[in-house]
Amino acid sequence: MRSGLERKEVAGQIRRLSDVLFKNIPSGVGSKRKDLRLSHAELKKVLVKGAAWAVRQGFGNTEDLDHIEESGCIPGADPDLISKRALERGRAQLGTLGSGNHFIEVGYVDEIYDESVAKALGLFLEQVTIIVHTGSRGLGHQVCDDNIKILMKSTQRYGIELPDRQLCCAPIKSREGRNYLAAMAGAANYAFANRQLIYHWVRETFERVFEMSAERLGLNLIYDVCHNIAKVETHRIKGRGVEVCVHRKGATRAFPPHHPDIPAVYKEVGQPVLIPGDMGRYSYVLVGTEGAMSETFGSTCHGAGRVMSRHQARKASKGRAIVRELEDRGITIRSAGRATVQEEIPEAYKDVSQVVEVVHGAGVSKKVARLRPMGVIKG
What we know:
The protein is of the alpha+beta class. Helices cover 39% and strands 20% of the residues. It folds into two domains: 155 residues, no CATH class; 164 residues, no CATH class. The radius of gyration is 20 Å and the shape is globular.
């Protein structure tokens, strides 16, 4: 999300802003909203409609939908293929921030690499931005677990040999394959709705802290994109268009200018690409390229990637006051637990600038702007 605020207008309020965000948006393992309990019938509507369900309930506006991958709804979802356990986990968690590497980050634009593209995205130097990273919560996790059990058996049934059991699979057009895609679409739509609710509460938080409407504050969605999903898309292979299933795991879409599946407002510059780093350094905004279409099925990386396991990070942070260290660097942290902060120390991740230079240099996405964190909410 972008705002019309500049860094100097927010710096003095960042602690209060972080406190109110942390209070307004439940975060962490098992977090639930007490003010948004859904019936199973209503939850199934969420799984079919995605972000549009949230907008119809008054959370956000229709313009938001124009700036979300697939307009915030993957077609073909079938809630009846999602287990009761998954539905129960999801019913209380809609509108919450996940644990681990999930976050809400208030930052600012500290460097621009392409002025014309930045202008098209509504970005300028010193501008305050907000990144929300969360997904389908316990519902999506349960959908995954349920289907792994099914796919483990189907791999044997279809005589598929695997180098690793975690790559269990089934032919896309098989019953198991079709059922999984339909259940996964429901989980993706839940994630779209979940983030849409959080965008709404981010706007409400800024309104409360700065005593201005979201419209006057210029709080608009730049883009919402998936990074753990299988999508049926058409790509050119050996000179002809072929329908394929692209599985982006820890990867994100990077469609080029004039691609039919990106918002009209970005047709000339390409799809916005978001590559977050860690809570102590920076994140990047890029755009998709023709190179991604020819080299990587319209894909680029999703983030920096870990260089330490969570256990190693806890060991490396032992005896350190991580929150104080980040405060000394001008970054306010609010977290559901101390363990999360220890596991998410900046050095647990690669330097995202090096990762971004690789994808930029390879031509699979193009740098637009760099964002530095001011306040971070961790799950």
